[in-house]
UniProtKB/TrEMBL annotation, chain A:
Bilayer-spanning residue ranges: 21-45, 78-100, 112-132, 161-186, 207-232, 271-291
Name of this chain's protein: Sugar ABC transporter permease
UniProt subcellular location: Cell membrane
InterPro entries linked: ABC_transporter_permease (IPR051393), MetI-like (IPR000515), MetI-like_sf (IPR035906)
Taxonomic path: Bacteria, Pseudomonadati, Pseudomonadota, Alphaproteobacteria, Hyphomicrobiales
Superkingdom classification of source: Bacteria
ABC transmembrane type-1 domain ranges (all copies): 75-290
Gene Ontology BP, a term: transmembrane transport
Sorted UniProt keywords: Cell membrane, Membrane, Transmembrane, Transmembrane helix, Transport
From TrEMBL, chain B:
Signal peptide: 1-24
Residue ranges of the TM segments: none
PANTHER family in the record: ARABINOSE-BINDING PROTEIN-RELATED, BINDING PROTEIN COMPONENT OF ABC SUGAR TRANSPORTER-RELATED
Source organism (scientific name): Allomesorhizobium camelthorni
Keyword Manganese among UniProt keywords: no
UniProt family annotation: Belongs to the bacterial solute-binding protein 1 family.
Annotated localization: Periplasm
InterPro entries for the chain: Bact_solute-bd_prot1 (IPR050490), SBP (IPR006059)
Name of the protein in its database record: Probable sugar-binding periplasmic protein
Gene3D superfamilies, sorted: Periplasmic binding protein-like II
Role: Part of a binding-protein-dependent transport system for a sugar.
Keywords: Periplasm, Signal, Sugar transport, Transport
């Protein structure tokens, strides 16, 4: 007891300044994020229409949600979009970064070119790709103009493949950033490791796969979080490119939430949908967080 | 000295000048009328209101009702209400009224005898909740129109159809000539609206009222509606290839003769007018698809949020009565392309199509608009169904009807 008073101040008052400074952020997180989330989940069990009302109807909103064909389409689209955009942005981003890392000429120029699309908002990206993929004015029109009359490339007007049209735009916009993150990671690898690998005669691809990539684990995790959060909230790209069409073929969950909360004036249904979105995030995050943080504590 | 004297006089005049408008009240009015014709029409309201000695502060919100309504609603519920705001009357603002956020206009309405002047009566009924009046209807828009391009039919070598069946029959000839028979924009409300129009035309008024008014799921699953779905299936085949989103882009396909026709409300007329086309010569309009000459009487109305400021409340009354004024009604509706809400005004300058509409209105062949009969929630579910149905040929009419009946069964 006495040693603590003389030697070390109480844990609570350590870094007091920093703790006081972070109070506003803690409050924001608790009240706005957690409080708002709890409020939303709570009201998703009511039949609130335009205004929130405390009239509980149990799980009715959820039953309706999972019976709605549009919600099922939205979930399916999110799954396709999510898996593919995760794989492609990581692979393409890493390949671009690895290529740029070969001490090539005009590296700055290439980096700028690849990163440039990221400076555009999703709305602008969506509009650009809406034009590019328009069968009359875009890529299909140009190729047909060059003489290939039967060339067909109109993903945005074909319900079967419309989600891939959106994926193309998302990759075009996002891979630049992933490339930059990866490049930063690659630059953080000590030159000596490369030299050692070369002395041992390990081929370059093996060095990347078995040495460099495992060493870049923190970078990969950051990247993963950035990509994943982008996937769940994808909304504006769809609105700008197809507004969910043709029909309901390119609907996504975030758009369902917005449409039912504000256009349909049915808050309860929107809340139920957003709760399901939260649940899906939790299902992904919790096992990962457990592996990531839980293991470190035990070891 | 003399200079100072001058400034004093100048200052006095300025003060006097400002004294007059200072008693006038600025009233912000929000609406979503932003296209050329619409903005001109709303200018007429502003002019009439400014003439009462107040000042109209225009709060136009671009991006159609779907975008504008959430903004308006969140302003009202968020405690920052505007002076007046547009809604489609019916049930869009129902809950705001129930929550006591909208102003009761009953006294003004009794004083000015709205019940007598507003025609048809259903318009005022839609503004009424528990016997109190909460909004001012300003125009009548009807959905039940088929717009046809005369040039397109000439090119295809067939006569301009006089009803829906002839139009369907002319489909293959149009296709052969490289013309899309039916222009249909990709936005969900357009496909849902087109279906409602087909329903009135093919199944008739009674069935329409039973399904949307009484929410009778049995009728919705019955043989009458099966016929409507069959017609919608025809429409779906004819609409294949109209790769546009907005309604006015679809109308433009008809104007330029790239498409044979379009099912769209009478607001499409403004587009034909702007393009300098003449009704009867360049384009043909068939109310009720030429089958059942019935029009719906939905439309726009203005609601007045409850304000604490007394001056502003007074200005709200001035605005409400100026909107129903006969001269304003004529000036506004001519520019808007809609029908006036008063039966006692003369629309001498109306064109052929508008006159057809006025005729039907005078005969009383009217039904309420779907916005008046169903909640936004049900409307949205319908939109989801029909946008999928029209875009995806693999859904059979039978399956779609089953889903339709389910929506009607749970409708409110």
């Amino acid at each position: 007891m006495t040693t603590r008073q003389n030697g070390r101040p109480s844990q609570l008052f350590r870094n007091l300044n920093a703790k006081i400074a972070s109070i506003p952020m803690i409050l924001t997180a608790l009240v706005i994020f957690l409080g708002g989330t709890a409020w939303t989940v709570f009201y998703s069990f009511t039949n609130s229409k335009l205004l929130p009302r405390l009239n509980f109807i149990g799980l009715d909103q959820y039953e309706r949600l999972w019976a709605a064909p549009r919600w099922m389409v939205a979930i399916e689209n999110l799954a396709i979009y999510g898996v593919l955009s995760l794989i492609f942005s990581l692979v393409v981003g890493f390949l671009l970064a690895a290529l740029l890392d070969q001490k090539i000429r005009f590296e700055d120029t290439f980096r700028t070119i690849f990163l440039y699309p990221f400076a555009l908002s999703f709305i602008v990206t969506g509009l650009i790709w809406q034009w590019l993929l328009n069968p009359d004015f875009g890529i299909q029109g140009v190729v047909r103009g060059l003489g290939w009359e039967s060339f067909e490339f109109d993903p945005l007007y074909n319900a079967e493949i419309v989600i891939y049209g959106i994926l193309i735009a998302a990759l075009w916009q996002g891979t630049g950033l992933i490339m930059c993150l990866m490049l930063a990671g690659l630059r953080g690898i000590d030159e000596d490791i490369w030299k050692a690998a070369r002395v041992d005669g390990i081929p370059m691809w093996k060095t990347y796969v078995f040495i460099i990539i495992p060493m870049m684990r923190p970078v990969f995790i950051t990247t993963l979080v950035i990509i994943a959060s982008g996937i769940v909230r994808v909304y504006d790209l769809v609105v700008a490119q197809t507004s969910g069409g043709p029909g309901i073929a390119s609907e996504v969950p975030a758009k369902y939430v917005y449409d039912y909360m504000f256009h349909a004036q049915n808050l309860g249904q929107g809340f139920a949908a957003s709760t399901m979105m939260l649940l899906s995030v939790i299902i992904v995050i919790v096992p990962w967080a457990y592996l990531e943080f839980g293991r470190r504590r035990h070891v | 000295m003399r200079y100072r004297h001058m400034t004093a006089i100048f200052a006095a005049t300025v003060a006097l000048n400002f004294a007059a408008p200072a008693s006038a009240v600025d009233l912000e009015v929000t609406h979503w009328w932003t296209s050329g014709g619409e903005a001109a029409a709303v200018g007429e309201f502003a002019k009439a209101f400014d003439a009462t000695g107040n000042k109209w502060v225009d709060g136009a919100i671009a991006g159609s009702g779907g975008t504008a309504r959430p903004i308006m609603i969140s302003r009202i519920t968020g405690g920052d209400p505007m002076g007046a705001t547009q809604f489609n009357h019916g049930r869009q603002a129902e809950e705001l009224v129930e929550a006591g956020l909208m102003r009761d206009l009953t006294d003004l309405a009794t004083k000015e005898k709205w019940a007598e002047i507003v025609h048809p009566k259903s318009l005022l009924d839609s503004c009424t909740l528990d016997g109190k009046i909460y909004c001012v209807p300003v125009n009548i828009h009807s959905w039940q129109w088929l717009w046809l391009s005369n040039a397109a039919f000439e090119k295809a070598g067939v006569a301009v159809p006089k009803n829906w069946d002839e139009f369907v029959a002319a489909g293959p000839a149009l296709e052969k000539a490289g013309i899309v028979p039916l222009a249909l924009g990709g936005q969900p409300w357009q496909s849902a609206g087109a279906f409602d129009v087909l329903m009135v035309a093919i199944a008739g008024k009674d069935v329409f009222m039973k399904v949307f008014g009484d929410k009778d799921a049995e009728v919705a699953a019955g043989p009458e509606i099966a016929k409507v779905f069959k017609a919608a299936d025809d429409a779906r085949k004819m609409a294949k290839g109209s790769n546009v989103q907005d309604w006015n882009q679809a109308t433009n396909l008809v104007i330029t003769g790239k498409a044979g026709g379009q099912i769209m409300g009478d607001w499409a007329q403004g587009e034909f007018q702007v393009a300098g086309q003449v009704a009867g010569k360049d384009y043909t309009c068939l109310p009720g698809l030429g089958v059942n000459e019935i029009i719906s009487t939905g439309g726009d109305a203005f609601y007045f949020p409850l304000l604490e400021d007394e001056e502003k409340s007074k200005a709200q009354e001035a605005l409400a009565s100026s909107m129903l004024d006969p001269t304003t009604q004529v000036a506004f509706n001519l520019k808007k392309g809609s029908l006036p809400v008063r039966g006692d005004v003369d629309l001498g300058a109306a064109n052929d199509c508008m006159k057809k509409g006025l005729d039907i209105l005078a005969k009383g062949n009217v039904i309420p608009g779907t916005d008046q009969l169903m909640s936004q929630d049900t409307q949205k579910q319908k939109e989801d169904l029909f946008s999928e149905f029209f875009a995806n040929p693999s859904i059979t009419p039978e399956d779609a009807q089953k889903r339709f009946a389910e929506i009607i069964a749970s409708a409110d």
